[in-house]
């Protein structure tokens, strides 16, 4: 392998320095949040910025894990994320597979409709009226169905399906495979990079659900984790008009612990999908 010399070496070092600086800027706030979550309130108020607490404590995490509101919100977030992501992937892959077939009637029209939704949406109020008319308010289906398919993901996945050799489909049909068997036995296994990539996209979106929840859900028992985090800030904010109705006192450690526990599932899942991430996006975009 040829070693970099002169200008090439300088450019390589510059790139690594910029990447290291960007990584440090991104990761230091996370270290600070982690440190505060294991510290006492006195240390948080007196030390300022620190990444290693002097007095290690688990009080923030123990308080949250014993808090019925947090555990309920965490459960709701898991249900919304798993159910929504499964529905997203199934509908997106099926729609993209259908639109990738050149023999499909009105294919150009349907592709244009999908693209049109990327430029103009129905709007928040019309969407709410549709959800209400379907009697889906105060149910997870309101969140799942209102964001079931992302047009961009459909277009990229459709381009990936179009890039597959026609010989595979023709061979499968000669062997007697129907459309469903062809899709499940051949297309899906070969499409795992792009499917895993969009699984991650949808999972992050569903896990971070906030706006849809406060619009479609009125029952406090159905609120997901992001709404609970917002509630933690509001209940301890003295500028809020209903501050007299504060039910809980959240310490800085409890707040930071809630942030860490909220980010933890995605931090655990991402390494397992990372190997598919770049490959899946590039396959769907370049080959299209």
TrEMBL record:
Family matches, as CDD domains: TM_PBP2 (cd06261)
Subcellular location: Cell membrane
Membrane topology note: Multi-pass membrane protein
The UniProt record lists the keyword Methyltransferase: no
Superkingdom of the organism of origin: Bacteria
Name of a matching Pfam family: BPD_transp_1
Record flagged with keyword Transmembrane helix: yes
Entry's transmembrane regions: 9-35, 77-99, 111-129, 141-161, 182-204, 253-273
Residues in ABC transmembrane type-1 domain copies: 74-272
Entry keyword set: Cell membrane, Membrane, Transmembrane, Transmembrane helix, Transport
Main localization (coarse): membrane
Family, per entry: Belongs to the binding-protein-dependent transport system permease family.
PANTHER family given in the database record: ABC TRANSPORTER PERMEASE PROTEIN MG189-RELATED-RELATED, POLYGALACTURONAN_RHAMNOGALACTURONAN TRANSPORT SYSTEM PERMEASE PROTEIN YTCP
Name of the protein: Protein LplC
Origin species: Paenibacillus cineris
Lineage per the UniProt record: Bacteria, Bacillati, Bacillota, Bacilli, Bacillales
């Amino acid at each position: 392998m040829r070693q970099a010399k002169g200008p090439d070496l300088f450019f390589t070092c510059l790139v690594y320095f910029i990447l290291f600086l960007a990584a440090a800027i991104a990761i230091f706030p996370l270290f600070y949040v982690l440190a505060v979550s294991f510290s006492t309130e006195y240390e948080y108020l007196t030390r300022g910025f620190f990444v290693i607490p002097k007095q290690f404590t688990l009080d923030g995490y123990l308080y949250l894990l014993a808090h019925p509101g947090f555990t309920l919100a965490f459960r709701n977030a898991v249900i919304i994320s798993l159910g929504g992501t499964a529905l997203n992937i199934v509908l997106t892959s099926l729609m993209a597979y259908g639109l990738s077939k050149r023999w499909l009637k009105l294919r150009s029209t349907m592709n244009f409709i999908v693209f049109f939704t990327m430029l103009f949406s129905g709007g928040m109020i019309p969407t709410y009226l549709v959800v209400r008319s379907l009697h889906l308010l105060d149910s997870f289906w309101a969140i799942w169905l209102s964001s079931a398919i992302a047009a961009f993901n459909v277009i990229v996945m459709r381009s990936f399906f179009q890039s597959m050799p026609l010989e595979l489909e023709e061979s499968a049909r000669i062997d007697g495979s129907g459309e469903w068997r062809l899709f499940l036995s051949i297309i899906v296994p070969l499409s795992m990079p792009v499917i895993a990539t969009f699984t991650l996209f949808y999972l992050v979106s569903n896990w971070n659900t906030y706006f849809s929840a406060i619009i479609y859900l009125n029952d406090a028992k159905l609120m997901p984790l992001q709404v609970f985090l917002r509630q933690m800030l509001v209940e301890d904010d003295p500028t809020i008009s209903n501050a007299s109705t504060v039910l809980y006192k959240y310490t800085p450690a409890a707040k930071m612990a809630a942030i860490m526990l909220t980010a933890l599932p995605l931090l655990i899942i991402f390494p397992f999908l990372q190997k598919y991430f770049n490959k899946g996006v590039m396959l769907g975009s370049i080959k299209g």
